[in-house]
Amino acid sequence: MRRILFLLIFGLAGLGVLISLGVWQVQRMAWKHDVLAAIESRITADPVALPSQVSEGADKYLPVRVSGEMLPGEVHVLVSVKQVGAGYRVIQPFRTGDRVILVDRGFVPTTAKQAMRITGPMDITGNLHWPDEIDSYTPDPDIDDNIWFARDVPSLAAALRTDPVLLIARSQTDPAVTPLPVGTVGIPNDHLQYAITWFGLAFVWAAMTGYFLWRGRARSESDAL
């Protein structure tokens, strides 16, 4: 009886832990849905003028409309687009008033890397962003071939001699450049899969606990005989 009682307590304790982890992931999933909805609402809000003071904490995803002049000089960030393939994000300096900022104009295929692009006066609508694309595996940029592997705002600003402010264009700035506007698609929300995993483990744990209890009881009855 002590052995069966131990198995029962151990099994129920483990089952409780696994179920609580699954419930926690369901709660996290609901929280993440709310976060993504808030981000999407901010991204698609009416654009405003570029703030005089910009900060990542206050202005990430802020929709902005700027008027000014697209300046010469480009940085090419390697990217892959679904159903299209590899290409580059074209990032250029843009003068608006007495400031020069970075503008991510969008995507061009690898064959258009060296093509001439429209510069000069234009109006641009987009979103301020500070992409988090660098980890320990990100290669350093190939300066000679002008190929970058991440949009690191301070490094891009230093390379193009601009303020460390990146506007990702939502409007088209050149017929040959396809805008890649900010969205929530790339923000992971894997909590449903995690919840299914924990609840699945809880089911297996419950089944194994039931099996060992049945086996222990059968052994006890056999020993009694």
UniProtKB/TrEMBL annotation:
Classification via Pfam families: SURF1
Keyword Ribonucleoprotein: no
Signal peptide residues on this chain, from the entry's feature table: none
Transmembrane segments: 195-214
One Gene Ontology CC term in the entry: plasma membrane
Localization terms from the record: Cell membrane; Membrane
Family, similarity comment: Belongs to the SURF1 family.
UniProt-recorded name of the protein: SURF1-like protein
